[in-house]
Design a protein that fits this description.
By secondary structure, this protein is of the alpha/beta class. It is built from nine helices and seven strands, in the order H-E-E-H-E-H-H-E-H-H-E-H-E-H-H-E.
Length: about 250
């Protein structure tokens, strides 16, 4: 008799992916869906998805979702959570959506301590729109709009979003993780679960940044992309918990 050891979580639909080979979005989707199922909040979870590579995230998750304009997911999530405080609400945003176009939205939602969770995918580039330089692009990194590499004297240093938000008083939990190795995948899931747990307890704003690959726009193989995350991204974007407050503000 065969024993089934691995199966799709109830939080995901069995849908072919549109993400590029080697992209980490699928891994993060799986982790979020597993956490939602394990916390037994599948029936009351609402995703607010952005504009970007994850614009079709609602096709994969097996719960309600609402589409936001570019960068406005935190504002939409704020409204949804205030109207339906019993719901488990989260945004899922890339660095172009959250750190560039929606920077003010995430800062002010965090500053107010809105009781939702933000999942931030940082792949140091604009993905869907052609690989332009993002606020998170590393110094020297080649993109479609920085063909000679990002120059610090022209555009400054990359934005460390987790560290920036951690300076605010209201956020309850802010962490940066990666999913480039099995060990990091396990740590990422634990952080995502902690973030959702804080929301369910009504403590306030929680935020998890995930360092991710973009093999297509980086011009790398999936294997080299994983190495780039470890060797180039992690030194500038160190993993860890940057804010861990106890109790409701």
């Amino acid at each position: 008799m065969q024993e089934k050891l691995f199966a799709i979580t109830k939080g995901l639909k069995e849908t072919p992916t549109h993400y590029c080979p080697g992209c980490h979005h699928g891994i993060v989707h799986r982790l979020i869906a597993e956490v939602i199922e394990e916390l037994d909040v599948l029936e009351k979870t609402i995703l607010v998805d952005p504009v970007g590579c994850s614009v079709l995230a609602h096709n994969y998750f097996n719960f309600d979702a609402i589409q936001a304009a570019h960068g406005r997911a935190p504002a939409v999530a704020t409204a949804v959570k205030r109207v339906k405080p019993e719901a488990v609400v989260f945004t899922y945003q890339g660095d172009g959506d959250l750190a560039a176009i929606g920077c003010a939205e995430i800062v002010h939602a965090s500053m107010r301590g809105e009781n939702f969770t933000a999942i931030f995918i940082n792949n140091a580039i604009y993905g869907m729109t052609g690989g332009q330089m993002a606020p998170t692009t590393l110094v020297g990194q080649v993109t479609a709009t920085s063909p000679y590499g990002r120059k610090q004297e022209l555009t400054g240093k990359p934005m460390r979003v987790s560290e920036m938000l951690a300076t605010l008083e209201a956020p309850q939990y802010i962490a940066r993780v990666a999913v480039n190795t099995p060990a990091n995948v396990n740590k990422a899931k634990a952080a995502i679960k902690e973030a959702f747990t804080r929301q369910i307890r009504g403590e306030g704003f929680s935020f998890v940044e995930v360092l991710s690959t973009c093999p297509t726009n980086w011009g790398m193989s999936p294997l080299k992309s994983n190495k780039f995350v470890e060797e180039s991204m992690m030194p500038y974007y160190p993993l860890g918990v940057f804010k861990n407050s106890e109790g409701k503000q």
